[in-house]
Design brief:
Blueprint (H helix, E strand, L loop, with lengths): L1 E2 L2 E4 L1 E10 L3 E2 L9 H12 L2 H5 L6 E9 L6 E2 L2 E10 L2 H22 L2 E10 L2 E3 L1 H11 L6 E2 L10 H7 L29 H17 L1
Parallel strand pairs: 1-10
Antiparallel strand pairs: 2-9, 3-7, 3-8, 4-6, 5-7
Helix pairs in contact: 1-3
C-alpha cells in the first residue's frame, strides 16, 4: 500500500477539436483546404505544449488519443476530429495549457485555411490528500500489509478528488501486480488480482476502527 500528502493523482481534462475544411477530390488538392494535413500539423504542435509552455518545475501530460477523418482513399475529407487528454496538478498550468490549445487551433485555421472548433471539458480535479489523513492512513496500512510513502504523484485521475474537496481524507493505492512485468491499467491483457480483495477489506476495517476510536 502507498499514499502521500498533497497531490497524489492529477486533474483530468478532455479536448475534442474539429478541423473543418471543404472536402474534395484528392487529385485536385489545390482547390480543397486539407483538414487531414491541418490535423497532422496540429498534433505535432500540441505535443510541444508541455515541453515549451509548462515550467520545468511543474508536471503535466498532454496525449492525443484519437484521430477520425476520411472514408475513401481518393477523397480529401471535409472534417477531421482530434481527441485527447490533459493531466495537471496546478490550476494555473491547467489554464495555460487550455489557452495554448485554443491558440494553436486558431493558428492552424489561419495557416491551412480551415476552421477549428475546440471543446474542452475539465471533468476531474486533482486528487489532493490531507497531510494528516495521509500520515494516519500510512500508519494504519502498516498494521495490515507493507506500507510506503509514494515518492511522487501519478498523472492518472480519480473521482475521489470530489470527496476530498468536501472533507479532508487520503486516497490510498493498493498494489496488486503479479510477476515482474504485470500488464498495466487499460492494457488489453490487464487482469485484476482477486487475491488483494481480502487485503483491501482488512485495510478498510482497520481504518474504520482507527477513526471510530
Amino acid at each position: 500500500m502507498a499514499t502521500r500528502p498533497g497531490p497524489i493523482m492529477g486533474a483530468a481534462d478532455k479536448f475534442r477539436i474539429v478541423i473543418a475544411g471543404k472536402g474534395g477530390h484528392a487529385a485536385i488538392p489545390q482547390d480543397t483546404p486539407d483538414a487531414i494535413l491541418a490535423a497532422a500539423a496540429l498534433v505535432q504542435q500540441l505535443n510541444t505544449i508541455v515541453a515549451r509552455a509548462v515550467p520545468p518545475s511543474q508536471a503535466a501530460v498532454l496525449s492525443v488519443t484519437e484521430i477520425h477523418g476520411g472514408e475513401a482513399h481518393n477523397v480529401i475529407p471535409a472534417e477531421v476530429t482530434v481527441i485527447g487528454t490533459v493531466r495537471t496538478f496546478d490550476p494555473q498550468v491547467q489554464e495555460r495549457i487550455e489557452a495554448r490549445i485554443r491558440a494553436m487551433v486558431e493558428g492552424i485555421g489561419t495557416a491551412f485555411e480551415v476552421r477549428g472548433h475546440v471543446q474542452y471539458d475539465r471533468y476531474y480535479p486533482a486528487t489532493i490528500n490531507d497531510p494528516a489523513a495521509a500520515a494516519d492512513a500510512l500508519a494504519v496500512a502498516a498494521t495490515v500489509a507493507q506500507a510506503e510513502l509514494a515518492p511522487e504523484p501519478a498523472a492518472t485521475s480519480e473521482d475521489f478528488s470530489f470527496m476530498l474537496q468536501q472533507w479532508p481524507g487520503a486516497y490510498i493505492w493498493l498494489g496488486q501486480g503479479v510477476g515482474e512485468r504485470p500488464a498495466p491499467l487499460h492494457n488489453p491483457h490487464y487482469d485484476f488480482n482477486d487475491d488483494v480483495l481480502e487485503t483491501g477489506i482488512r485495510l478498510h476495517c482497520a481504518l474504520a476502527r482507527h477513526w471510530l476510536a
